[in-house]
Design a protein that fits this description.
By secondary structure, the chain is α/β, with parallel strands linked by helices. It has eleven helices and 15 strands. Helix 7 links the parallel strand 10 and strand 11. The radius of gyration is 20 Å and the shape is globular.
Length: 349
């Protein structure tokens, strides 16, 4: 396992100067780089193998009830998708992964580390774990920063082998991509200024301007709730952004009254800005998963095997990454964030 890099202290992260810089960079990134591609990337050839499609993931989407269970049982066996990844030559022999670079403690570059900061965070730890298992080198990764609404297209177009980017498993997405077993539990939550009269996902949101990320679970959930006449019925949902961090910028500029996003991400954003806080409890239960091509059965099974081992590893596994990255913003007890144990799988005969 690669040696864990020591993080520089985050002194002043919540300060005005650092936040102004972070916000400016986030806006610039959103405007100029909707999809970050690596130098030399070919537009004609994709990454990741097609493998042999068994139709299991398609059946899962059609019969979806508990989306977090609609995956394949774990296996350490190789297959066509894994063979194609390993068959890349020279500098291209890397796992190509879509990630976030703006989500504090999940996938981000520490502005206090100096120089060209490396990507780090909870999701990044998982990526390195997968690369070490498949390629024997935890650093054999080509990271591609992609906005929220490009996660599925990046997989379908073959720009990435997988996406590890706080991506919620849901039935709609299962029609387009395959997911691993869950690796984190969360739920939608409201983030607003401390001084606001908003108390949570309730009638206090009526008439408020709420920011969500395009293509996010938050947006689809609120749109459905508005159609159903729930608490979101009177909410203004006109403000959508490519990346979730852009919502925090809009909130700081006073362009919206609240943000709705995963509670795990909202906690990290609240840690970046001491003037905002989580309002009320999560109003959904959701799970993050690793997203891959629908027909990459061997890769899905392999990632599920890696997740089993990552959860069981007491020294450098899930618990260690939680303590390293998330305990400060989400609390010392990870019980509420742990995925089902043991996971349940859609098994094939």
């Amino acid at each position: 396992m690669r040696a864990r890099r020591l993080r520089a202290g985050l002194k002043g992260w919540g300060g005005v100067g650092a936040m102004a810089l972070a916000c400016a960079l986030a806006v610039l990134f959103a405007l100029l780089l909707p999809v970050v591609r690596s130098h030399g990337e070919s537009g004609g050839t994709g990454v990741g193998g097609h493998g042999v499609a068994h139709g299991s993931q398609a059946r899962a989407a059609e019969e979806c009830a508990d989306p977090e269970k609609q995956t394949l049982s774990p296996s350490g066996a190789d297959g066509p998708t894994i063979d194609e990844i390993r068959g890349r030559e020279g500098e291209k022999r890397k796992l190509v992964v879509g990630v976030d670079q703006n989500s504090y403690r999940w996938g981000y570059r520490d502005p206090n580390s100096g120089g060209e900061a490396e990507l780090e965070g909870f999701d990044i730890d998982l990526v390195h774990r997968i690369a070490e298992d498949i390629l024997g080198d935890a650093d054999a990764v080509q990271f591609k920063a992609i906005p929220t609404d490009q996660r599925i297209p990046a997989i379908q177009d073959g720009r990435v082998d997988m996406v590890v980017r706080t991506m919620t498993i849901n039935c709609d997405r299962l029609r387009d991509v395959a997911f691993s077993a869950p690796y984190f539990r969360t739920g939608q939550q409201v983030l607003a200024p401390k001084a606001a009269d908003i108390t949570g996902y309730d009638e206090t949101l009526a008439g408020k301007r709420v920011c969500t990320a395009a293509g996010s679970t938050a947006l689809s959930t609120l749109e459905q709730e508005r159609r159903d006449g729930g608490p979101a019925a009177g909410v203004d949902l006109d403000t959508t952004v490519p990346n979730q961090l852009d919502c925090l910028v809009r909130l700081q500029l006073g362009e919206v009254d609240a943000v709705v996003t995963d509670g795990a991400l909202a906690a990290s954003q609240a840690a970046q800005d001491p003037t905002v806080e989580l309002k009320g409890d999560p109003f959904t239960t959701e799970y993050y998963g690793v997203a891959m091509k629908k027909d990459a059965d061997d890769l899905v099974r392999r990632v599920n095997q890696i997740l089993v081992e990552w959860r069981a590893d007491k020294a450098e596994g899930w618990q260690h990454s939680y303590e390293e990255w998330l305990a400060e913003t989400m609390g010392d007890d990870p019980a509420g964030s742990q995925p089902p144990s043991p996971p349940q799988y859609l098994r094939e005969d």
